[in-house]
Amino acid sequence: MVELNILDTEQKNERTKNIDILSTLEVLKLMNDEDKKVAYAVEKELENIQKAVDITYEKMAAGGRLIYSGCGTSGRLGILDAVECPPTFGTDPELVQALIAGGVMAFVKAVEGAEDNQELGAEDLKAIGFSEKDILVGIAASGRTPYVIGAVSYAKSIGAKTISVTCSTNSPLTSITDVAITLQTGPEVITGSTRLKSGTAQKMVLNMLSTSVMIKLGKVYGNLMVDLKATNEKLVERAVMIVRTITEADDLTARQTLEACDYSAKTAIVMLKCNLTAAKAEEAINKANGHISSIIS
């Protein structure tokens, strides 16, 4: 039996105990006031987030993958972060993956009982060939979800590094991971509804983790996403803008250069800045491990 009364995420918020009789604006103001606490909760964990970023970068720079494991809201947040990496940073879809209890269908519809299956967490990792070269991030607001604990336990058993992102102190999950990020967001506006402040805090941490790692991997130049995949009209225009901003080329030149290198903004930038062919530019980028700052500076 789960003892909900001992979980931070299940405590009653005294400030919202009469929320059901408030006006619409009063409800919104109260929710907004509670949400303001989230960024401060994240700030208090910056040192642990730094550790998570550095260890993840180390693994990914050596050829490993970043894998998220979660259930419900936590699992869906992992999926949201993973699926945004390819278009934003030009990564292979296999590089950042998210596993959710109950499989992909659980993203849109709850799969009863899946989160209570500890063995399933391990089996899902085995199914993607998870190894000690990869890194696992277990996401669970309560810090006690069996599916995630099962995944983390398996990852540790084969020598992989593990990170937890929770919103409950002294949870089982935080005690078994190499890096524990514990976001003390306080009781939810609606008791136990961790899709609210807890989910917001977890999303902020995942944003920080993946974005910081991608910056360190050379996926960003200045603050521009030079490795984006131009898979739609908006992203094509963004690629043109990025190339023009960095190289000061005119619109026509930027577009022609992008067309010559399959719309790789990074390649186009090196071509224009160093007067190279697409093949030579790609060779230079590979030698620089993707960091174009060392090529065009």
Please identify the structural class as seen in this structure.
Answer: alpha/beta
Question: What is the domain tally?
Answer: 2
Strand order of the largest sheet: 2-1-3-4-5
Rounded to an integer, what's the Rg over CA atoms? Answer: 22 Å
Description:
Its EC number is 4.2.1.126. It comes from Lachnoclostridium phytofermentans (strain ATCC 700394 / DSM 18823 / ISDg) (Clostridium phytofermentans). The protein has about 300 residues and is α/β, with parallel strands linked by helices. The chain has helices spanning about 25-45, 45-60, 70-90, 120-125, 145-155, 195-215, 235-245, 250-260, 265-275, 280-285, 295; strands spanning about 65-70, 95-100, 135-140, 160-165, 180. It folds into 2 domains: about 10-215, Rossmann fold, CATH 3.40.50; about 235-295, Orthogonal Bundle (Helicase, Ruva Protein, domain 3), CATH 1.10.8.1080. A 5-stranded parallel beta sheet has the order 2-1-3-4-5, with helices on both faces. Strand 3 (about 135-140), helix 5 and strand 4 form a beta-alpha-beta unit. The longest helix has 20 residues, at about 25-45.
